[in-house]
Design goal:
With 186 residues, this protein is mostly beta strands.
């Protein structure tokens, strides 16, 4: 058992027999009354998001998920298929369970983590840093810039990020997918 003081983003809770992942939380200490915690919870199986308020110090059931290495194979339009690296089983996952913020960086044969509960992969996490090729960007023009000028670049997965002016089409970039941020050329 854990308490609301242990909350962190990504933590999985069991509430009324269903699994929920914390996507946002905020401890609130009003001037009058007791402290409480506001949370946004995402249902792990359906992808539905709900808000819930907890009293400070309230006890909760935390679920420990095992991480397993999986590889993205292909998409059939509705489901994304991953291969378990240990058992070579096909794991179909709904796009809502992966999330649009991760889907824009997903490419074939990418190594990911499958989060396992009761011997079933229920969620997919992409690596925090991905290496992708620039397929479209404007040529960088030097001139009326102070420092740190950027331009838009479209990556091979369709994601668009801001990059420095020296980045060219065909360059492979290391990107922090959590912040949609250029890190370096590879």
């Amino acid at each position: 058992m854990a308490s609301t003081a242990d909350f962190r983003n990504g933590m999985v809770l069991k509430i009324d027999g269903q699994l929920f992942q914390i996507t946002y939380f905020q401890h609130v200490k009003p001037g009058k009354g007791g402290a409480f915690v506001r949370t946004k919870l995402k249902n792990v199986l359906t992808g539905a998001v709900t808000d819930r308020t907890w009293n400070a110090g309230e006890r909760i059931d935390e679920v420990r998920l095992e991480r397993r290495s999986v590889q993205y194979s292909y998409s059939d339009g509705q489901l994304y298929h991953f291969m378990d690296q240990e058992t070579y089983d096909d794991i179909p996952i709904n796009s809502e369970l992966i999330g649009d913020d991760q889907l824009k960086y997903l490419k074939e044969e990418m190594e990911c983590h499958g989060l396992v509960h009761d011997d079933k992969v229920i969620m997919i996490e992409l690596p925090h840093f991905v290496e992708l090729e620039v397929v479209e960007t404007e040529p960088g023009v030097r001139g009326d810039t102070a420092q740190g000028a950027t331009k838009a670049a479209k990556l091979e997965t369709g994601a668009v990020i801001q990059v420095p002016l020296f980045v060219q089409q065909g360059d492979v970039l290391k990107v922090d997918r959590r912040e949609d941020k250029y890190l370096t050329r590879v």
